[in-house]
Amino acid sequence: NAGVTQTPKFRILKIGQSMTLQCTQDMNHNYMYWYRQDPGMGLKLIYYSVGAGITDKGEVPNGYNVSRSTTEDFPLRLELAAPSQTSVYFCASSQEGGYTFGSGTRLTVV
Amino acid sequence: ILNVEQSPQSLHVQEGDSTNFTCSFPSSNFYALHWYRWETAKSPEALFVMTLNGDEKKKGRISATLNTKEGYSYLYIKGSQPEDSATYLCAPANSNSGYALNFGKGTSLLVTP
Prior knowledge:
The structure holds 2 protein chains of 2 kinds.
Chain A: E1 4-7, E2 10-13, E3 19-25, E4 31-38, E5 42-51, E6 54-57, E7 64-66, E8 76-78, E9 87-94, E10 100-101, E11 105-109
Parallel strand pairs in A: 2-11
Antiparallel strand pairs in A: 1-3, 3-8, 4-5, 4-9, 5-6, 7-8, 9-10, 9-11
Chain B: E1 5-7, E2 10-14, E3 19-24, E4 30-38, E5 45-50, E6 56-59, E7 62-67, E8 72-77, E9 86-94, E10 107-112
């Protein structure tokens, strides 16, 4: 049982490049989330999904896009990377209890 | 977006000390209150999910209480050990936010031998 798997673990992007952060879970959870963690700021919700085909904005969605074509996968897309998007990104899933988090993706935009 | 306050911001205790932290949140439309433990270089791990006023939950030396009417929760650690060193996050959800949580900034606990 892998839980929540995020790839890649680390990435350096140049300004203006695009990339997709992958997230997959094998627990058949309906709910999935993307958070970013900035120093001293805690976890901020970017996007979330309550099921396949349904997504909604969180607190800080600008500059990101998501899709949820299957229950298992919830990729996060950065279209035009900016230095302000340098952060650690966490994907999580839940059903009716606590969240299960992935191991995180550390992204640096230079 | 729910306004979540955690105090203290950081705490340094000696091994064997008992300690507690506070999480304050809006009491209106309360749905659930989560506590997470987050060790450095790891991912947050769920400790408790609490939904009922007056609820008390326990896991080993860690316990939590909930007051939904006044909007606060306490996390207690009895006999702190160095392995308890971590950041403890609380996250409330109300009936509007549903399962999407807004996390507090956390209380950073350091336990030294």
